[in-house]
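As a warm-up, study this chain.
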Amino acid sequence: MSADPAREGGGGGRQPGDRKGRMLADSAVVEEWPVWLEVNGEPAVTWMCTPDQLEELAVGWLHGEGYIESLDDLVQLRPCAPDLGFWADVRPGPLARVKAENRKRVLASGCGAVATMLADPNAMGAPRVPARGEPPSPETLRTLFKQLFASGARYNETGGIHAAALTDGAALLFHAEDIGRHNAVDKVIGGAVLARTAIVGRGLLVTGRISAELAFKAARAGLAWVATPSVPSTLAVTIAQRSGMVLVGRAVSGTPHLHRPEG
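Now compare it with the structure written out below.
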């Protein structure tokens, strides 16, 4: 697969993603660009995002939306040379299942659109299931978040960007930053899919609140737990309970809040 596409933009012809997407510390802004994706010839989504790790973003989004279960379901992913966008071809089976869901889009708290099933807990219809796994100790969680913050070049320069990391509970496996927290999650999941690294049973660190769309992405990926220095939403807790995930709020405090599937 090809590297991230780039195009010339404003600001003296500077391209998005120059200096790996970083901005000068005294500018106090972060890059935000539209990036589109077509799936099997049909427009699927346009992200407003930080323009790097775009291949990971596309693959992670396809995984989170159910278009692919593994890299084997992605026939090809082609960047558009003159524009920031991708054409994806996926296998017909997953594509048919997505279309059969007849999804409708609603505005979500995480910037963007999610399926309407996320807006109504009763629409999920599933009973609570046992936990998939346990998060590490509070001390280990604080250590992992220190590593996450230390890895955040753009956060350290601007203070205005989200980050996410996939972890095995001992180390960070994949890390990403983005102006959208759901994009950062897609990037780390996409990185794992591209590397053919196991995702099921892992943990996810996020710097923003755990909203419904993030919980749904994590549940679809088979993650065991998600942790944040912030808090989860009520609908995120419902999704976690019905999928067997543990949510950890206030994860860097002395008393993390654990929301377990068994309530």
